[in-house]
Amino acid sequence: PDMRISEMMGDYQSAADCLIPMGMTSENVAEKFGISRLEQDTLAASSHAKAAAAQKAGKFESEIVPVKVTLENKDGDEVEVIVNKDEGIREGTTVENLGKLKPAFKAGGTTTAGNSSQVSDGAAAVLLMSRAKARALGLKPKARFLSFAVAGVEPNVMGIGPVEAVPKALKQVGLTMKDIDIFEINEAFA
């Protein structure tokens, strides 16, 4: 399909902001909320350390379905490989190592290849059904789906979307942040 963007987009700042690359929105969030490079690198190093420890302890094994793929190796030969773990976890990542990386999106910026997510492929699946259907199939529910919410934020700081959406979803079911033990939120950018 023809994916041309109207030249008029530039005439309207709110429309043009929708075209800002995600990496630049990360820079905007850091600047707007005073999040330093050191804070981002510290969070990134901590996240990788926690993920590496969980991976070593086998915490993700029941969550990942092994997939057999055929790849071309360095010699040009096709080889079969089993993908059975998250390849984005960088064990041994330190604040010091991250501090050596150059900004990825703008000169003098704070977002680097080390404190943002890697480009990778992935897939996920969730099986949802009523409690009655689960019982009929002899399945034991592992969780309850209570609520969801959509919240719009300015596109130039789109990374703060969960800040608006999470409280909205909780309010719909009479919960507050204090009622939740743990959140799992995508860390695209530290």
Largest sheet: 2 strands, antiparallel
Give the helix level as a range of percent: 25-40%
**Strand order across the biggest sheet?**
1-2
End-to-end gap: 35 Å
Category from helices, strands and their pairing? mainly alpha
Overall mean pLDDT: 92
The portion of residues forming beta strands comes to: 5-15%
What is the β-strand count? 2
* Number of helices, counting only DSSP H or I runs of 4 residues or more: 6
What is the overall silhouette? globular
Kindly provide the radius of gyration, computed on alpha-carbon positions and rounded to a whole number of angstroms. Answer: 21 Å
The SSE order reads HHHEEHHH
The parts where pLDDT drops under 50 for at least 5 residues are none
Q: TL;DR of this structure?
A:
This protein is mostly helical. The protein has helices at residues 13-16, 22-33, 37-56, 95-99, 131-136, 161-172; strands at residues 67-72, 78-83.
Report what the structure shows:
With 190 residues, this protein is mostly helical. The chain has helices at residues 13-16, 22-33, 37-56, 95-99, 131-136, 161-172, and strands at residues 67-72, 78-83. The longest helix has 20 residues, at 37-56. The two termini are 35 Å apart. The mean pLDDT is 92.
List the SSEs and their pairings:
Layout: H1 13-16, H2 22-33, H3 37-56, E1 67-72, E2 78-83, H4 95-99, H5 131-136, H6 161-172
Antiparallel strand pairs: 1-2
Keywords:
globular, 190 residues, 6 helices, mainly alpha, single chain, two-stranded antiparallel sheet
